[in-house]
Structures are given as structure tokens and as C-alpha cells.
Design a protein that fits this description.
The protein has helices at 2-23, 56-70, 98-106, 129-137, and strands at 43-49, 74-80, 114-117, 124-125, 143-152, 155-164, 169-179, 182-187, 193-199, 202-206, 213-217, 222-230, 240-248, 251-259. The protein is an alpha+beta fold. It has a single domain, classed as Immunoglobulin-like. Strands 7, 10, 11, 13 and 14 form a 5-stranded antiparallel β-sheet that branches.
Length: 261
């Protein structure tokens, strides 16, 4: 009994000393929360295009100019869907996808080329993309997005990491597969068919579902997602890339483009 009593006394003394020590920590030596470094905004441009759209090459030229100006701060995706998209036949390769059609109809688009810039509520004519992209780039981004994509065993493996920098971001994480350097039919502004036209940043498929998956990340925290996708024979792995973005009712919060290793 005496040993137990002595043990209690020693615990009380240690606790008192610890508390007393805390009282003497200087104000400037205490831990202070530091807000994460602000994230650089990356803008997503969804270009609704079609191989039978004569003005669509003009929109592609605008995207090229924007990439020269903003580099990796702009992520463009060519979505082949709608009435001017081409599904292909025995003689010509088509780039139209069912998912592209679903997106086109969901946004109630009425013509092509037209785009969504960071999924703001109003579709934007390609002649106005430069001004809207510039405006979106001025807005703060509440998170960083980064990741890794590589081919192994005939599958594409993707890792996406998000770091919260300002408050809690809740919405959807969307991951898409894109392909560059696809030579296929395209109607040109003069009405002629160009069989050697090179299509870039072409939407191929949604890696994690048509509308993505539920997602949330808190300020100062890291959220990590892993996913994989079987490769299709027609995809050229050396030209593949991944686009990932987080969006909600306020639009796209952040985006990133990853080259496939």
C-alpha cells in the first residue's frame, strides 16, 4: 500500500513540474500555425470539337496560341462529341466517343467549336477563350494537384495527390486519358477534307467514371488516390497523358496534366 501511495505522489509531482514548465514557454517560442503556400492556378479548357466541324481547326489554333502564352498553366482537352463529331467508318478513323456525346448533351451545347473554361456556367465561343482564360488565371486556387502515371503489364496506373492550401475543398475528382499526335480526317475552314490532319489532346476515356468520384481535402492535408485502366490496342502509349481536376458547383478548382511514363 505504501508503494502505491508513493507512486501516486511521484506522478503528481511530475505532472506539476510539466505544467509549471509549460507556463514558462515564451510567447515567441510556442508553435504557430503557418498557412500553406498558395497554389498556382491551372485553368481547364474543354474544347468541344468535331472532325466534321470546319471552324474547329481555328479553335485549335487559338489553343496553340494560349499554350505558347501560358504553358502548363493551361490544360486543354479536345472532346469529340455532338452532331459534328465523327464516329469513323471502314475508310477513316473517327474520334467521337459516347462519353463525349454525354458531356455535349449534359451542358446543352448548341454549336461547335465551343468551350467550357473551368466549367463556368456559360459556354464560351472560341473567339473569346483568351479573355476568359486570362480572367480565370487571376483567381486563387485552394489546392495543389500533382501525380504520376505509368504503363505496366498492359495497364495504365495513375496516382493523384492533392494538397489543401485554403480551407476545405469538397467536390469531385475527375481523371481523363488523352492522346496526342493522332493523324485523322478533319474538315478545314475552306470546306476541304484533310486526311493528314494531326489531332492533339484528344479525349479518349474517363479513368474514374464519367463524372469522377467524391473528393475532399482539408487545408494543410494530403489526399491521395490510386487507379488503373486497361490499355486499348489503338492507343499509342508514347502519346498518352492524364488530365486530373477537382470540380464542384463553383467550377473547376484546380487541374493538372501528367505525361505517361
Amino acid at each position: 500500500m505504501l508503494h502505491r501511495y508513493t507512486y501516486y505522489i511521484m506522478c503528481l509531482v511530475c505532472t506539476s513540474l510539466a505544467l509549471a514548465g509549460c507556463d514558462h514557454i515564451a510567447e515567441d517560442e510556442r508553435l504557430i500555425y503557418e498557412k500553406p503556400e498558395p497554389a498556382q492556378r491551372v485553368v481547364l479548357l474543354e474544347d468541344f470539337t468535331g472532325q466534321r466541324c470546319t471552324n474547329c481547326p481555328l479553335a485549335t489554333d487559338i489553343i496553340g496560341q494560349l499554350h505558347e502564352t501560358y504553358g502548363e498553366a493551361l490544360v486543354a482537352v479536345g472532346i469529340h462529341g455532338g452532331p459534328l463529331a465523327f464516329a469513323g467508318n471502314a475508310k477513316a478513323l473517327g474520334l467521337k466517343t459516347e462519353t463525349g456525346d454525354e458531356y455535349y448533351n449534359h451542358w446543352k451545347l448548341e454549336y461547335q467549336p465551343v468551350g467550357l473554361v473551368n466549367r463556368q456556367k456559360t459556354p464560351v465561343n472560341y473567339t473569346e477563350w483568351a479573355a476568359v482564360v486570362r480572367e480565370e488565371l487571376q483567381k486563387p486556387a485552394p489546392l495543389w494537384l500533382e501525380g504520376y502515371a505509368a504503363v505496366a503489364d498492359n495497364s495504365l496506373n495513375v496516382i493523384i495527390e492533392a494538397r489543401g492550401t485554403d480551407g476545405t475543398v469538397t467536390g469531385k475528382l475527375q481523371v481523363w486519358l488523352l492522346e496526342d499526335s493522332i493523324t485523322a480526317l478533319q474538315l478545314m475552314p475552306d470546306g476541304k477534307a484533310n486526311q493528314e490532319y494531326v489531332h492533339n489532346h484528344v479525349f479518349r476515356t474517363a479513368v474514374n467514371g464519367t463524372w469522377g468520384e467524391d473528393f475532399s481535402v482539408e487545408e494543410g492535408m494530403l489526399e491521395r488516390r490510386e487507379m488503373s485502366l486497361p490499355l486499348q490496342p489503338e492507343w499509342k502509349t508514347e502519346h498518352l497523358s492524364i488530365v486530373a481536376f477537382v470540380y464542384n458547383d463553383s467550377g473547376v478548382q484546380q487541374a493538372v496534366k501528367l505525361h505517361v511514363e
